Amino acid sequence: MGNLLRGRLGILLVGLIGLAVYWFSNQQEVPFTGRSQFNTMSIEDSVRLGAQSYVQILQQEGGNVLCSRAARSCDINERELVRTVNEIGARLQVAAVQLEEELLSQGYSFTPVASEFEWTYNVVASNQPNAFCLPGGYVAVYTGILDITGNYDGQVNMADIDDVDKLAVVMGHEIGHALAHHGAERMSQQQIVQMGSLAVGLGMGDMSAAQRQGVMQAFGMAAQGGILKFSREHETEADKIGLDLLVRACFDPREAPELWERMGEQGGGQRPPEWMSTHPASETRAENFRRWMPDAIAEYNRRCDGNIR
Ligand SMILES: [Zn+2]
What we know:
The protein is mostly helical. It folds into two domains: 39-179, no CATH class; 183-304, no CATH class. Helix content is 61%, strand content 7%. It contains ten helices and five strands. The chain has helices at 2-6, 8-25, 43-61, 76-105, 146-149, 165-179, 182-203, 209-248, 255-266, 282-304; strands spanning 27-30, 35-38, 120-124, 131-134, 138-142. A three-stranded mixed β-sheet has the order 3-5-4, with helices on both faces. A two-stranded antiparallel ribbon has the order 1-2. Strand 1 (27-30) and strand 2 form a beta hairpin. Helix 2 (8-25) runs antiparallel to helix 7 (182-203), helix 6 (165-179) crosses helix 8 (209-248) and helix 9 packs antiparallel against helix 10. The longest helix is centred in the C-terminal third of the chain and has 40 residues, at 209-248. The protein is globular. The N and C termini lie far apart (67 Å). Residues 269-275 have low confidence and may be disordered. Bound molecules: zinc ion (ZN). Zinc ion is lined by residues 173, 177, 235, 238.
C-alpha cells in the first residue's frame, strides 16, 4: 500500500481528491431556482469575456448588423425592428433588476448583476433562427428567428413583430442564461475536466497504450455526459427565469410553451434522444411549463391587472 501511494496511483488519488475538494468548495447557489452551481470565474471576468466575444461576433457579422455603423442598410422596417427588440429588452431588463431585488429581500445571498450589466441589443440579418445574451447583457437577435416568434407563416416579414410576446419569450430565456452565469459555469466545468484528464493521464503511467486509450475514452465519455446533463439543467433554468421575467414585464406567459413547441418542430422531427442533446426533450419542457404556469398566470394577473386563465 505504501509503495502504491508513492507511485502513480498515489498521484492519481491525490489529484482526484484535490479536484473533488475544488469542486465542492466552489459551489454557489443560483438564487432563481435554488440549484447549486460550480463556478470559479468572477463576474468581472465573465463580463469582460462576454463584451469581447460580442464585439467579435458583431464585427464578423459586419454589414448584417441592422442599423449599426457598419450596416449595409437601415430602412424604415429595419429601424422598426431594431426599435422593437430594444423595447422588449428594456422591459425585460427592468424585470430582471426587480426579480433580483425580490430575491435579495427574501434573504438569498448573491451578487445582483442586472443593474450592473451594460444592456445592449442588436439585430442581425441572417437565416439562422438564433438569439443569445452574453454575460454583461449583450443581446443579439437573428432575423431568422422572427417567423418562429411571429405569425409562423413560413416567411420573415414585418407582420412577425405585430405581436411580440413570443419574441420576448426567447429574449427572456437568453437573458436567464446570463443572469444565472451559465457561461461561467460551463467554462469552469471545462477547466476541471481538463485538470481531471491530466490527473488521469499521470496516473496511467504503467499501462499499455491500448489500456490508456480505453481509460481516456471512458473518462471523456463520463465528462461529456456530465456536461450535457448540466447544459440541460441550464435550459430548464433559463426557461424558469425567462418565465419569471415575462410576467414581471407583463408579457403573456402562456406564449412560452407554444413558442418552445414551435422551436421543437424546427428540428424536423429528427431530434436526438434527450440524453445526447443539450436541449430538454419537448415533452420535458412542456411538462415543466404545465407545472409553472398556474403561478405564472396568477402572478401576471396580480402585477399586470390581467385577467388571463
Ligand atoms: Zn437556452
